[in-house]
Amino acid sequence: MRRIPGSFGFVKRPCLPAFWHEGEGALPEASEPTLVMSELQTQPVVKEIPPKAADLSAWYTAVCLKAELTSYSPVRGCVVLRPYGYGLWENLQKHLDARFKATGHENAYFPLLIPESLLLKEAQHVEGFAPEVAWVTHGGQEALSERLAIRPTSEVIIGVMYAQWVESYRDLPILINQWANVLRWEKATRPFLRTMEFLWQEGHTAHASAQEAREETLRMLDVYRDFAENVAAVPVYAGLKSESERFPGALDTFSIEALMPDGKALQSATSHDLGQNFAKAYDIKFLDADQQIKHAHTTSWGMSWRMLGAMIMVHGDDRGLRIPPKMAPIEAVFVPILKSNDDRALAACRETAKLLTDAGFRVRVDERDQQPGWKYAEWDLRGVPVRIEIGPRDVNTGNVVLVRRDRRKGDDDHKTVVPLAELPARLRAMLDAIQRSLFDDAKAFLAAHTFDVTDREEFYEKCRARAGMIDVAWCGRAACEAHVKAETSATTRNTRALRGGETTCVACGEPATKRAYFAQSY
Ligand SMILES: [Zn+2]
Which residues contact 46 (CB under 8 A, 6 or more apart)? Predict the structure, then answer.
């Protein structure tokens, strides 16, 4: 059992696809040849990205590095989030944090280090957790009398504090979120998807009743769904995890699951109803209005930078990233077309950029001494949603040219000439259209790769072929799920109620109790 970034949940170590191992022998990959500008001029950067459909894994790594989202570091298992990648994280934070605040949560911060004796408390709930914990054993030269764990997650330290803070029902609910890094020992390195240290948020709440805790769990699941679909433009299936995929100690674990272009699912966030199990372990008790001492009902929920990995894989194309405008660190980039002895285009770019910045847009002017064609390829690679071209002729006519990153040369709406006076409104409309279009395309892909299967042979065949999300009536039995996994590598991603009319489990023929999406997964 192991935890994976992007979830509090534990899942059995999945069969790793070949590409997870690619980087291992090659580490440290800090020696990855760095592209310098002179090389880029003679060799357009886009040509260095392998075709996405041919090798998703190679494409993904190349895009993360060459779009300057991440760099490998001298620390095995750890990546550097470069400014452009951190810009993505900041936008994720901004949108999620606004949703947390709107649902009544506050941010706080808890210690990085956890005394071993406290962590062992959690180990009662968490089988097989120890192999992933890194330990601090010395302070300077002095050996510590008690080892300190670097947090792999914060239930322990937060649970201990809640026990101190809660006395009466009047102290509840506690609705706290923490933005933090966590560390889980990890040998493979895959930017955003698999790293030893990663960024995430973890919400931890305590409530007076079971009903409130359940409502909170589902509320935050829907916050994640809303963020994934309406900000990251990644359509997901939200549902209940099966028993074998559930966080140990939780009553129920819910997840959102996205589908990647290679037909594998990516768990993108989880939300747990912990019942009273954790409150009992940490002694979170309160005096209720009826003068009875009771244990609180708690929840926890998390999304990590793994979500960025999903977004990159879902939307990118052979030219590089395609970032949904709401997530884009730069929404539009100005590329001036300069003619000798005429720098009016540059001045026009600067002025117009200022106007847009004042209107709340995130824009940049590319003033580097490079050919426009080189700049187009580079900003395409980096996924900036709109390019704004201004040349001497545009200055004369009072127009600018808008180019959509999500379209290709030859598409009707690839390039649009817009009068300068209409630019803010037209740019806003274009960004909205791109946001919608990326989501619609991803949604169409998900629909086209979701299979409502009733035939047993077809079910096993599609699971093996990694066809996508296989939607079936299921018995809900762990033995059935284990059998499917052994035969095909596919597992349940999440489940929901029967539609009505289904009688038997497609996988085994026992009575059906729910519907489940089966898929191979990251
Ligand atoms: Zn079954």
Answer: 318, 319, 320, 377, 380, 381
